[in-house]
Every structure is written in structure tokens, then in C-alpha cells.
Automatic annotation (TrEMBL):
Record has Transmembrane helix as a keyword: no
Record's compositionally biased regions (Low complexity): 11-21
InterPro entries: AH/BAR_dom_sf, BAR_dom, PX_dom, PX_dom_sf, SNX30_BAR
Name under which the protein is recorded: Sorting nexin-30
Length: 385
């Protein structure tokens, strides 16, 4: 069974009134010491560009750094989604042993989401900002030259056309592995990682589908509430003594509608994107696992070839030793990235689930407050009789 992070659950049961402090308490545990960091990147200021052939959105990338690799202390460039896609492909190509953070999906279902709407653009901006921050926090990826070019080049197209030859030796070797070698079996620790990722993606996929159904039902309920409330208001015009209580009920339902809309928006804009990012993250990790398997399979095949002709060549050839080095490099990098990913996942899901609890508590508090507000009015009418 998949064990979700259990950190962050407050001891004891707090009163509903204290719900808004949950995230504040949580944030104290997750603050990063900014003094130890030397690279800061943000994504903001989305702008729509309408051209003859296409319409697209660009985002401002602001970089501040004290690293020697940067000629200036601060840069500001504009990038579109396909530039982020270029960066990710270059990172995969030049750093094959490392886990590359996923990008938000490029395509949306036609007619369901307007990719130029303010809500969609803001959701994507947040995802792209997180993508770059993941790279910035990585001890290897953040020093990649392609990443440097992405952050600093005024004209990225010039680099995209010429193509920078920055493949590492490991990268070149992995790139040329054709997959013709067949791995007998994964080492137990990597087999366990593969099984975990399969279960993890399955669980999140199920949560994602159910959450989407809940959101759909909430939207349908919201439509009914917006029709339901005004009926009491129009009814009040026909009633003398009941006019004030009926207007009160109408206003109460209106307040509940607003609270439900806020809850639904939060699930759509904050909850679902995190689930989908981690589903894509598991796919990225599986991809690195497959590359590791290919390199190990190549190493095993070379060892077998040497064993068959060991009488002629008693010494292990240099190419076999290099292949062994690649396997060890893959294993070390993959385990380190997996540990880093697990730490990020625990923090992200703790904050996500605490936020989900907090938003639901706020929703029910607002509904409770709305209904309680009309009780004195109804009691007055009853006493008046």
C-alpha cells in the first residue's frame, strides 16, 4: 500500500475558529534559509502576444545570483512555453542520470479550458515558476549551461538553432545506447522504486479523477443554489409578515454560494495542479530508471563478452570499466534525486492536504455563520406571534 506523508497533522483537535492558523504553523517548519542560497529565479508578468500566424503567452523570468557563472547580478528575459520545453529536453539530454522536473501539460481539451483565460494563465505561471525553482534548488541541474543560457540569453532562438554541444561523457554514452541490450533483473532497491512509482501514480490518478468528479458536482450544485436563492427573494414580495425572513434565507443561500465557489476554485487552481505535477514526476522518474537499466544491461553484456574470451584478454578492457563507472554514476545520482524528490513530496503533500483541510473548514464555517445569522430573525417573528 502507498503510504502518504504523515507529517504535519496537528496534535489534538483544534476548534474551527483556529483553522486559519494551520498553514501558518506549517510554514514555520518549511522555511528555507535564504542566506545559504546564491540563485533566485521567479516567473511572473504573463503577456499575451497576437501575431499573424499565432497567439501565445510569454512570461518574465527574473534571475538574481552571486555565482561566478553569471556576468551580471540580475537578469530579466521573456520566455514562452516552448522555451521551457526546450530547456527541459536539453536537461534530459545533457543530464541523463538525473531526475528532470516535469512541465505542466502543454495541451488542454478543446472547448473545456480557454488557454488564454486569466485563470489558466495564472495556473500555468505557477507551474512554470515551480519548474524553475525545482531546477534552481538542484545541486547539479542549477549549474547546467543550458539553464544558464535560458535564464540570461536575450535571444534564445539563436542558441536553439546552433545547438550547444554540452553533452557529458555519461550523456553521450547513454544517448547512444540503442536499447538492444536486455536487462536480466533490476537490483532490489531499484525494483522497489519502480513498484512504488507504479502504485504512487495509480493512487494519485484515482484521487485526481474523483476530485474532478467532486468539482463537477460542486459546480452543478452551485448552479442550483444560484437559482434556489432568488426564489425566496421573489416569494418575499408576495408575503407581508414573512418578507424579512424570506429575504434573509435568500441572502444566506447567496453567501453559501460564494463560499462554495471559493472552495471549488481552490481545488481547481491549487489542489489538482499539484496532483498532476506528481503524476508527471513519477513518469519522469520511470524514464530515468529505464535509462539506468539500459546502461546496466550494456555493462552486463560487455562483461559476458569479456568472460567468453578471457583466455585471450585476461585484463578487463577499459570500455567495460567505463561502462561500470556509468552504472555507478547512474545509481548514485538516481538515489540522491529520489531522496530529494521524497523530501519535496512530503513537504508538498503535507502543505497540500493541510490546505485542503483548511479550505474545507473555512467553507463550512462560512455556511454555518450564514445560517446562524438568520436564526435571531426567525425567533423574533415567532415571539411576535
Amino acid at each position: 500500500d502507498l503510504i502518504l506523508p504523515n507529517g504535519g497533522t496537528p496534535a489534538g483537535t483544534s476548534s474551527p475558529a483556529s483553522s486559519s492558523s494551520l498553514l501558518n504553523r506549517l510554514q514555520l517548519d518549511d522555511d528555507i534559509d535564504g542566506e545559504t542560497r546564491d540563485l533566485f529565479v521567479t516567473v511572473d508578468d504573463p503577456k499575451k502576444h497576437v501575431c499573424t500566424m499565432e497567439t501565445y503567452i510569454t512570461y518574465r523570468i527574473t534571475t538574481k545570483s552571486t555565482r561566478a557563472e553569471f556576468d551580471l547580478p540580475e537578469y530579466s528575459v521573456r520566455r514562452r512555453y516552448q522555451d521551457f520545453d526546450w530547456l527541459r529536453s536539453k536537461l534530459e539530454e545533457s543530464q541523463p542520470t538525473h531526475l528532470i522536473p516535469p512541465l505542466p501539460e502543454k495541451f488542454v481539451v478543446k472547448g473545456v479550458v480557454d488557454r488564454f483565460s486569466e485563470e489558466f494563465v495564472e495556473t500555468r505561471r505557477k507551474a512554470l515558476d515551480k519548474f524553475l525553482k525545482r531546477i534552481t534548488d538542484h545541486p547539479v541541474l542549477s549549474f547546467n549551461e543550458h539553464f544558464n543560457v535560458f535564464l540570461t540569453a536575450k535571444d534564445l532562438n539563436a542558441y536553439r538553432k546552433q545547438g550547444i554541444a554540452l553533452l557529458t561523457r555519461v550523456g553521450e554514452s547513454v544517448k547512444h545506447v540503442t536499447g538492444g541490450y536486455k536487462l536480466r533483473s533490476r537490483p532490489l532497491e531499484f525494483a522497489a522504486i519502480g513498484e512504488y512509482l507504479d502504485t504512487f501514480a495509480l493512487k494519485l490518478g484515482t484521487i485526481d479523477r474523483i476530485a474532478q468528479r467532486i468539482i463537477k458536482e460542486e459546480i452543478e450544485y452551485l448552479v442550483e443554489l444560484r437559482e434556489y436563492g432568488p426564489v425566496y427573494s421573489t416569494w418575499s414580495a408576495l408575503e407581508g409578515e414573512l418578507a424579512e425572513p424570506l429575504e434573509g434565507v435568500s441572502a444566506c443561500i447567496g453567501n453559501c454560494s460564494t463560499a462554495l465557489e471559493e472552495l471549488t476554485d481552490d481545488m481547481t487552481e491549487d489542489f489538482l495542479p499539484v496532483l498532476r505535477e506528481y503524476i508527471l514526476y513519477s513518469d519522469s522518474m520511470k524514464s530515468v530508471l529505464k535509462k539506468r537499466d539500459q546502461v546496466q544491461a550494456e555493462y552486463e553484456a560487455k562483461l559476458e563478452a569479456v568472460a567468453l574470451r578471457k583466455e585471450d584478454r585476461p585484463k578487463v578492457p577499459a570500455e567495460v570499466e567505463k561502462c561500470q563507472d556509468r552504472v555507478e554514476c547512474f545509481n548514485a545520482d538516481l538515489k540522491a534525486d529520489m531522496e530529494r524528490w521524497q523530501n519535496n513530496k512530503r513537504q508538498d503533500f503535507r502543505q497540500l492536504l493541510m490546505g485542503l483541510a483548511d479550505k474545507n473548514i473555512q467553507y463550512y464555517e462560512k455556511c454555518l455563520m450564514a445560517w446562524e445569522s438568520i436564526i435571531p430573525l426567525l425567533q423574533e417573528k415567532q415571539e411576535g406571534k
